[in-house]
Design a protein that fits this description.
Blueprint (H helix, E strand, L loop, with lengths): L1 E5 H15 L3 E5 L15 H5 L4 E3 L4 H13 L3 E5 L10 H8 L2 H4 L9 E6 L14 H5 L5 E4 L3 H13 L4 E6 L6 E5 L11 E4 L4 E5 L3 H14 L4 E5 L2 E3 L4 H10 L2 E8 L4 H13 L8 E5 L10 H4 L3 H13 L1
Parallel strand pairs: 2-3, 2-4, 4-5, 5-7, 6-7, 10-11, 10-13, 13-14
Antiparallel strand pairs: 1-8, 6-12, 9-11
């Protein structure tokens, strides 16, 4: 069956299907029950599955994750919603010292099948603490996997795959893209969860992105095509583990690579990707791997966020610089 779905609706249906398939799946978060969440991702689920499986929690992120650890130990599959990206930090201690480490600490005897859903990124005109990009903190933490979806197809299948996975997964959702639509075949065989994907072919430059920046990268590729340049766009889809084999194959062909993300450039995911591309594809590179990201400042007030967020012009400027070598 093929349906036209927004990312938000795809997540809703994916959560519903996961709950239908496994009675041990439990959703937890602030206002996710009767309200259906701030972005209505869980709309209607408490009504259909009950208050024991869709739990409205107190405003206490550390408590949400601590409770999820206990539930996971008892065989449940908790799915925790962090209302906004900037709200995850009160739970950071639980995530990095308990969720990420219990499986190793127990020598594999205790699994932590916890999914932590986080709406990430800016672009919605929000106030402070509502527009962060915290992926590097979690990607740097051994024991966690980090997924960053960019489209309704990956949202629908990815949330189900993450819930079924035995390890803890930070599941990043591009909040300003929640209303983007695409055709989703709900009866298809999905791509593997931890794999990158070429979403536009090209020969001159390899352009890498994930989450909300994939659309920006595709727009830049189209604008470059109008000027006669051929850009290959790869959606990384997962930032930990990184699936870089398709990236290496592309860079060996194009000789140039640009990485784009909303998070600050310094020590962001782009730095790790640039290092690994350089190590593996050194003799194929015609230019240094370039990065386009947020600035090394706290996320600005909403009136200034368009100056902060990487946009088409900044991406194309990096493409021009790469082509200039």
């Amino acid at each position: 069956m093929t349906e036209t779905l927004t990312i938000g609706k795809a997540l809703n249906l994916g959560l519903r299907r996961a709950m239908e398939d496994d009675a041990k799946v439990v959703l937890m978060g602030e206002d996710i029950g009767k309200l259906g969440g701030v972005f209505r991702i869980t709309d209607g689920l408490q009504k259909d599955f009950g208050e024991d499986r869709v739990v409205d929690t107190p405003l206490a992120e550390a408590g949400i994750l601590g409770t999820a650890v206990g539930l996971a130990m008892r065989g449940y599959r908790p799915v925790c919603e962090i209302q906004f990206d900037g709200f995850v930090f009160p739970a950071y201690n639980q995530i990095v010292t308990q969720v990420a480490k219990i499986h190793a600490r127990s020598k594999g005897r205790v699994a932590m099948p916890i999914v932590i859903r986080i709406p990430m990124g800016g672009g919605i005109g929000a106030v402070e603490h509502h527009s962060e990009s915290p992926e590097a903190y979690f990607a740097h933490t051994a024991g966690l996997k980090v997924v960053a979806v960019s489209n309704p197809v990956d949202a629908y299948w990815g949330i189900q795959q993450a819930i079924a996975h035995p390890d803890p997964i930070v599941f990043l959702e591009p909040k300003r893209r929640y209303w983007e639509k695409a055709e989703v075949d709900t009866s298809a065989t999905p791509d593997p969860l931890f794999g990158s994907r070429v979403v536009r072919g090209g020969d001159d430059v390899t352009l890498l992105a994930y989450g909300p920046m994939v659309k920006t990268a595709l727009q830049a590729a189209q604008a470059a095509a109008d000027e006669g340049r051929s850009i290959e766009v790869i959606d990384l889809r997962t930032v930990s583990p990184l699936d870089l084999d398709p990236v290496f194959e592309s860079v060996r062909r194009t000789g140039r690579c640009v990485v784009v993300h909303e998070a600050p450039t310094t020590l962001g995911l782009g730095a790790e990707i640039a290092a690994r591309v350089t190590e593996t594809c050194f003799h194929s590179l015609e230019a240094p791997v370039l990065r386009v990201g947020g600035y090394d400042t706290p996320y600005p007030p909403s009136k200034l966020e368009e100056e902060y967020l990487p946009d088409l012009d900044r991406v194309l400027d990096a493409v021009d610089r790469a082509m200039g070598f």
